[in-house]
Amino acid sequence: MTKVRVNASRSYDVRIAPGILCLIGEYVRRLFPAAQKAAIVTDQTVGALYAQKVSESLAVANLLPICYSMPPGEASKNGAQYLSLLALFAQDHLTRSDVVIALGGGVVGDLAGFAAATYLRGVPVVQIPTSLLAMVDSSVGGKTGVDMPSGKNLVGAFHQPSLVLCDTNTIRSLPEAVFRDGLAEVVKYGMLGRPTLLNRLTVDFSHAELEPIIAECVTMKRDIVQTDEFDTGERMLLNFGHTIAHAIEQLSNYQISHGFAVAVGMAIDTRAAVKQGLCPPECLQVLTRLLKRFALPLETAFDAKSLYDAALADKKRAGDEIAIVVPTALGKCELKQMPVNDLLGWIEMGLNP
Ligand SMILES: NC(=O)c1ccc[n+]([C@@H]2O[C@H](COP(=O)([O-])OP(=O)(O)OC[C@H]3O[C@@H](n4cnc5c(N)ncnc54)[C@H](O)[C@@H]3O)[C@@H](O)[C@H]2O)c1
Ligand SMILES: [Zn+2]
After folding, report:
1. 261 Cα: distance to centroid of ligand 2 (angstroms)
2. Which of 156, 158, 181, 157 is nearest to 78 (CA)?
3. Ligand in closest contact with the CA of 262
4. C-alpha span between 266 and 247 (Å, rounded)
5. Residue 114 contacts residue 138 (beta carbons within 8 Å)
6. Minimum-distance ligand to the CA of 76?
7. Is the pLDDT of residue 351 over 70?
8. What ranges in the chain are assigned the alpha helix state H?
9. Looking at residue 316, what is its pLDDT?
10. Residues 304-324: pLDDT tens digits?
């Protein structure tokens, strides 16, 4: 088992190992000796696969498991679902000494985390991420929230989990495309600060090697979160490729998944950076090779002007400037404030190979 300790406004462990799901009861009991109930929030797909195992483990530890299940997918990450979850917590008399357990991908993690952040002004949450994306990214760092009709993640709160359990066996049941979505974020970590990770992905990537890869991503996210928990500086680096990715997701009406959009966003930003002489061509070669290897896209059918207009609605915009994450060396990226007017040219440059 790999353990990564996070010291943010709350300190907690991220534990990564195959089969660790069955130990949830033991860990929760150790952390919360007075807890009586465990509210398992999941989606119907993940719930059907793993909720029973989780419930059994909790029951053995003398916790009463109550399971709340929602339809799978981003459409569930909304205000109505959030309010009905709170209503159910209240109806079941959940108290502040009880604990919420988010069992699922990033959608469940964000929604359950936000409900936990706000119900009774905050109850503890344990994250059990079951998608690769949720393991390497969304379950760690405390960002929680829901989407609004006018945009993704527009409402939320910082609420650090009390524990994150990554059972790498759960990845086996992930649909292939969802797995590759997560790989796009793994490639992002490599580009951001881990040349060793890029090498690992190039040389000996296999499903059997996931534990060290997840651990490396989590460690990197941990380091960033510890220096900038509330996302005012360094944490924005995690948005590499994301300004354009969010534009692509929005323009496709969310038919193009997040990871695929991030892959294209990273390719566009890196091409533009190379053309402007900010980044050595080697970076683009490595990124291209990895994205192709994982069957992730490097191009989009949307034109520069549409992407630009959609990107301007992005929340990383501050007045007349927009923060773009620019690769500057292999395994290194920097934040660059760019006048909003320059963004169109940047996208045009990045669109053309
Ligand atoms: N909070 C953060 O810091 C943060 C960071 C990145 C992304 N996010 C959010 O995460 C969400 C995306 O997360 P996601 O890609 O995990 O999406 P998701 O939660 O919708 O999961 C994708 C699909 O995979 C299924 N699934 C999950 N685990 C499975 C398993 N083990 N076996 C079989 N099926 C499984 C789900 O049912 C769903 O249909 C977005 O809403 C995004 O905004 C949050
Ligand atoms: Zn992302």
Report:
1. 9
2. 156
3. 2
4. 13
5. no
6. 1
7. yes
8. 24-31, 44-60, 79-91, 106-118, 132-133, 176-193, 195-203, 210-227, 242-251, 258-275, 281-293, 304-312, 343-351
9. 57
10. 999 999 998 765 566 788 889
